[in-house]
């Protein structure tokens, strides 16, 4: 299925980086133009365009009056899930809330002896839109996405949180998604998916008012739509297929390593699952474990395709070499299945999330550990961070001068303004100091 690559050769290193970076280099001009056309039409035709796309691609009988999930539908959803689901939902929500409460930023002030006051005012955006795939009846409802996107917005203090998710052919939405949304205080939910949902959130229609921030995962059309509306609204990030890189030494359990590779591979045929190990014996054992575990999965063919196309098992000369390549790849999920993982944390510079030790599967981070699972992919961990409370906050500078303070700073303000040829800037100081 996948063969070890000897990282010690220059060729092996190039193969690794080429596979890891391939998705970010692939472009689909057809998708870009299709999305651009959808955005333009929704911006111009608003609800008429949204309704047409919904009928063509999701529910043929949907009406404008039923785009928003009704209170009766929300009540019915609560009756259709069992107590065990509620227990797990509340357990996960509490873990995520407890972690993200530590991220909340405070406004602050600095004062000087001359009476000048400067500072930063931290305020939430007014509204946020959560895109949640898998809302259709019979499909996989991504309940964790509701929690991971909605709870940080709630902690930030966003007054209006909206969820959009595609309906099934019968116009229904997964009860699990509706209950998860209600559990964290979201009851404004629309049965709209794909690029037209992003367009509606970005531009607004009569039925779906616009928002300030759009977050949440989706297919290539959703990702491209977010890219094209970025700037008009804030987005969380441009994300590609899920990724994991497992750094393992001779103490790692090959069954654990293989299981975590498969946990990423089952997401998407383009998912990335990579192992860098210092043990040739472990590399061979992981390959055998992949062959053994793969047929046991419910998404065997998806995982198989991902492993064949983008799976790698590499053998490095040393842990230092393995960690340095991990930094170069800047992976979404980085696992350290080594004897002393904490020894290497200080050497990690670029990763979306780091999982320490053999008893810490990436799946724990997806659901209940607490940190957000919305993470940078495609090497963007080099420059960006996980979604968090700060995604829904904005900062305004505060500046207050007394007459005495302005008089003390006047010469420097005027000198810089004149140097830049901005005489009106300089004059705005002069007219104040001339006033008796």
From TrEMBL:
<dbReference type="Pfam" id="PF00815">
    <property type="entry name" value="Histidinol_dh"/>
</dbReference>
<dbReference type="GO" id="GO:0000105">
    <property type="term" value="P:L-histidine biosynthetic process"/>
</dbReference>
<keyword id="KW-0560">Oxidoreductase</keyword>
<dbReference type="InterPro" id="IPR022695">
    <property type="entry name" value="Histidinol_DH_monofunct"/>
</dbReference>
<keyword id="KW-0862">Zinc</keyword>
<protein>
    <recommendedName>
        <fullName>Histidinol dehydrogenase</fullName>
        <ecNumber>1.1.1.23</ecNumber>
    </recommendedName>
</protein>
<feature type="active site" description="Proton acceptor">
    <location>
        <position position="333"/>
    </location>
</feature>
<dbReference type="GO" id="GO:0008270">
    <property type="term" value="F:zinc ion binding"/>
</dbReference>
<dbReference type="InterPro" id="IPR001692">
    <property type="entry name" value="Histidinol_DH_CS"/>
</dbReference>
<keyword id="KW-0368">Histidine biosynthesis</keyword>
<feature type="active site" description="Proton acceptor">
    <location>
        <position position="332"/>
    </location>
</feature>
<keyword id="KW-0520">NAD</keyword>
<feature type="binding site">
    <location>
        <position position="242"/>
    </location>
    <ligand>
        <name>substrate</name>
    </ligand>
</feature>
<feature type="binding site">
    <location>
        <position position="366"/>
    </location>
    <ligand>
        <name>substrate</name>
    </ligand>
</feature>
<comment type="pathway">
    <text>Amino-acid biosynthesis; L-histidine biosynthesis; L-histidine from 5-phospho-alpha-D-ribose 1-diphosphate: step 9/9.</text>
</comment>
<keyword id="KW-0028">Amino-acid biosynthesis</keyword>
<dbReference type="InterPro" id="IPR012131">
    <property type="entry name" value="Hstdl_DH"/>
</dbReference>
<comment type="similarity">
    <text>Belongs to the histidinol dehydrogenase family.</text>
</comment>
<feature type="binding site">
    <location>
        <position position="264"/>
    </location>
    <ligand>
        <name>substrate</name>
    </ligand>
</feature>
<dbReference type="GO" id="GO:0004399">
    <property type="term" value="F:histidinol dehydrogenase activity"/>
</dbReference>
<feature type="binding site">
    <location>
        <position position="264"/>
    </location>
    <ligand>
        <name>Zn(2+)</name>
    </ligand>
</feature>
<comment type="function">
    <text>Catalyzes the sequential NAD-dependent oxidations of L-histidinol to L-histidinaldehyde and then to L-histidine.</text>
</comment>
<feature type="binding site">
    <location>
        <position position="333"/>
    </location>
    <ligand>
        <name>substrate</name>
    </ligand>
</feature>
<feature type="binding site">
    <location>
        <position position="366"/>
    </location>
    <ligand>
        <name>Zn(2+)</name>
    </ligand>
</feature>
<feature type="binding site">
    <location>
        <position position="425"/>
    </location>
    <ligand>
        <name>substrate</name>
    </ligand>
</feature>
<feature type="binding site">
    <location>
        <position position="425"/>
    </location>
    <ligand>
        <name>Zn(2+)</name>
    </ligand>
</feature>
<feature type="binding site">
    <location>
        <position position="267"/>
    </location>
    <ligand>
        <name>substrate</name>
    </ligand>
</feature>
<feature type="binding site">
    <location>
        <position position="267"/>
    </location>
    <ligand>
        <name>Zn(2+)</name>
    </ligand>
</feature>
<keyword id="KW-0479">Metal-binding</keyword>
<dbReference type="InterPro" id="IPR016161">
    <property type="entry name" value="Ald_DH/histidinol_DH"/>
</dbReference>
<dbReference type="GO" id="GO:0005829">
    <property type="term" value="C:cytosol"/>
</dbReference>
<dbReference type="GO" id="GO:0051287">
    <property type="term" value="F:NAD binding"/>
</dbReference>
<feature type="binding site">
    <location>
        <position position="420"/>
    </location>
    <ligand>
        <name>substrate</name>
    </ligand>
</feature>
């Amino acid at each position: 299925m996948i063969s070890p690559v000897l990282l010690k050769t220059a060729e092996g290193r190039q193969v690794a980086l080429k596979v890891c970076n391939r998705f970010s280099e692939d472009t689909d001009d057809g998708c870009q133009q299709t999305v651009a056309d959808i955005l333009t039409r929704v911006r111009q035709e608003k609800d008429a365009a949204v309704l047409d796309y919904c009928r063509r691609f999701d529910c043929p009988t949907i009406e404008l009056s039923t785009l928003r999930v009704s209170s009766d539908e929300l009540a019915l959803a609560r009756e259709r899930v069992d107590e065990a689901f509620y227990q797990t939902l509340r357990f996960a929500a509490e873990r995520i809330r407890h972690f993200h409460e530590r991220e909340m930023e405070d406004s602050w002030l600095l004062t000087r002896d001359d009476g000048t006051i400067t500072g930063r005012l931290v305020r939430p955006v007014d509204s946020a839109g959560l895109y949640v795939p898998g809302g259709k009846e019979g499909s996989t409802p991504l309940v964790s996405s509701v929690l991971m996107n909605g709870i940080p917005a709630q902690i930030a203090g966003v007054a209006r949180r909206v969820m959009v998710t595609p309906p099934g052919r019968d116009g229904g939405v997964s009860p699990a998604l509706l209950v998860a949304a209600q559990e964290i205080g979201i009851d404004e939910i629309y049965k709209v998916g794909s690029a037209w949902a992003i367009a509606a959130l970005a531009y607004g229609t009569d039925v779906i008012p616009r928002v300030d921030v759009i977050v949440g995962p989706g297919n290539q059309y959703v990702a491209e739509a977010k890219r094209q509306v970025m700037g008009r609204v804030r987005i969380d990030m441009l994300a590609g297929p899920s990724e994991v890189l497992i750094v393992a030494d001779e103490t790692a359990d090959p069954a654990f390593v293989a299981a975590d590779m498969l946990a990423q591979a089952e997401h998407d045929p383009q998912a990335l699952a990579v192992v860098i190990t210092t043990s040739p014996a472990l590399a061979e054992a992981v390959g055998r474990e992949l062959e053994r575990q793969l047929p046991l999965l419910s998404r065997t063919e998806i995982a198989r395709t991902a492993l064949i196309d983008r799976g790698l098992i590499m053998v490095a000369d040393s842990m230092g070499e393995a960690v340095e390549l991990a930094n170069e790849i800047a992976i979404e999920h980085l696992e350290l299945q080594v004897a002393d993982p904490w020894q290497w944390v200080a050497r990690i510079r670029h990763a979306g999330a780091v999982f320490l030790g053999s008893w810490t599967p990436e799946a724990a981070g997806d659901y209940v550990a607490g940190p957000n699972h919305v993470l940078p992919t495609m090497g963007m961990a080099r420059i960006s961070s996980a979604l968090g409370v700060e995604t829904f906050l904005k900062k305004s500078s505060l500046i207050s001068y007394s007459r005495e303070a302005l008089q003390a700073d006047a010469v420097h303000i005027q000198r810089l303004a004149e140097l830049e040829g901005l005489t009106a800037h300089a004059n705005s100081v002069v007219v104040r100091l001339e006033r008796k």
